[in-house]
Write the structure tokens for this entry.
Amino acid sequence: MDLLTGIFITPFAEMIGLPDLFFQALWDGFVSGTLYGLIALGFVLIFKASGVFNFAQPILVVLAALALISFYKMGVPAWISVVLVLIMFYALAWLIERLILRKLVNTDGNILFMSTVALSFIIIGAAQWIFGGRPSSMIHKELGFPVGSVEWPMFGGGVYFELLDISAAVVAVLLIVCLGLFFSRTKIGRGLRAVADDHQAALSVGISLNQIWVIVWFVAGVVALVTGIFWGARSDVSFALQIIGFKALPVLIIGGFTSVPGAIVGGLMIGIGEKMFEIYWGPLLGSGVEGWFAYFIALGFLLFKPQGLFGDKIIERV
Amino acid sequence: MKKTIISAFVAISTLITTVGMSFGDLLVPVMTYRVGPFAANGTQNANGFVDYLTMLNERDGGIGGVKIKVEECETGYKAEKGVECYESYRGKNPLVHTPNSTGITLQILAKAPEDKTPILTMGYGLSAAAKGETFPWAFNYPTSYFSQMTSILKYIDSQTGLKDQKIGFIFLESGYGREPIPVLEQLAPKFGFEYFLLPVAGKDAQNQSSHWLTVRKEKPDWMIMWGWGVMNPTAVKAAIKSRYPLDRFVGNWWSAGDVDLGPIGEAGKGYKGATFNATGTDFPAVQDVIKHVVSKGLTKTGSEGPGTVLYNRAMWNAALIAEAIKTAQDITGKKEITGEDMRIGLENFVLDEARLKELGFAGMVAPIVGSCKDHEGAGAAFIQQWDGSKWVKITDAIDPMKDIAQEMLTKAAAQYASNNAGWTTQTCN
């Protein structure tokens, strides 16, 4: 009986009794969700172009954030630092295409995946050698993002909106919309989809595989930079930031590995769902629910809708 | 012919290795993590430890005229890597193991008696290792997690009283984080407070908004944290964001370093943490490290390392090992000692006020004396507070609730021994 009350009555009574907490959880979940979506987006872009899960994406987030801070510490103005990081990522995309991807055209997907694992370790080693292991503060204030918060008083309590969280949500949504339009309305975007389907077929109709890969890795770098700025501002910038990158995996399973809107919808489902479940149903399970909730939902999708909500349903003829 | 060449090669290699070992110095391996998610804290730990022993080599020519060979083994704070590191030193006569991780400690604890090499887990590891009769080969000077939790509870008691208080315990979901929970379980009914647990999985260390929404729902009077690495600054930032009063938020000594609060700065003002070592560079031992190691470029740290919480603590860890080596040399009359000799040193060193002054640690740490029965030592901790730019000591040393802590330690040690058939114990006079 206690169990049934804990599942069906207590959580809803708490939602009604403490509406400010409910709205706070909803807002925090929305912000986390958009940021999860942002991380997932980096994976989606590479997956769409090469059909490979880019294991190096989380470390690209760290690399972008550390490089940005380092340029700034060297005396470069904040926004010029951003431009320098973007140039650095374009160079990196070009190098990755030249040294790794070009040599692996038409090879098995597992080989491409393992190459991103290797790339990840190379970047970790190089970044630690260059930047050291000490954590740094993100330069979001210097970039002009507002700090502080606004409060919405409610029923004797209040809902706090961090200005940085509002900025993060706005920037993430804008970026996702822009990328969605870019990949659905432009020639490059359509080329990218062709490349993802079949390398050889894309080549045969004149699509430059090399150019597409450079562009996609560069755009994934841009997404990594935005992700690094906002996640870095929420904790600090250190190599630990790469762990959060793997939170994208359940998001991708839910949204689909090839869908830009799927990344954001999956992110929001996980973000809001895990907050609600942790706060209202977590005590029944001894707390710590957030650690596995996303994977539990993802498992359900793998069993019943393996292509995700928006992913391409692959039909292969024997 | 081919066989002969291979045999000769193997023989020469073995000879080189053996000669290298026999003329080798005092081998002090240390498991470090300069990479991975906990690298920020691990690097400070590693630097302080290595730099102090390097300083002894530079200034004194080692210990008792024998050079110290400090060897780092990178674990990334992963237990399986720690076990690999441990195994790699088998047969090389390591004097003592410093795992720098409770998870690794728990994995190698049972191997120590077999290999006859002691393990020193300064302020971490298995709390029950404090009972020297049950754990002859493990030491956790100068204090254990059980003792620390009772000291923190005593501090809370001195501020608001414990009765009717609600305490939230946020911890890294690991052997380390769970270690002090039995203390809360036992003391809550005794002192009339209630508590709730908030485990933070390693992968969610940077994403604690759910945990702090729960804090907002539960409205605790105090929060205690057993965090590590990036979990610490994230928790403090989340506390600030959820308007939790920071002067009611107390971290343990692994949750209150300069690397944790430095990036937060002024916003973190008021947050408190336990510690067993003071910060700053005014101590002669720190000055010697700066003079003989840092200024000569013999370190991996920058100038910001010496004087910080974790760097000074790691120096203290190395100094305690150095003192145990010296004690072992004095007792056995040997210059090149073994792990077994080292164990004797760890049970017999005397770091009283006079000796601490001689070593340049007076005022930084509390005196401590090695013992056969008590592998924990004094057990006291004091509370420091972040003033926006640095840690400031705000209490004197707070002794643990010794009767309670000792009773729990004895029980936990007996439990460990009964769970491990054939466990080696010792009798102390």
About this structure: Chain A has a mean pLDDT of 87. The longest strand of chain A covers residues 149-154. The radius of gyration of chain A is 21 Å. The longest helix of chain A spans residues 19-50.
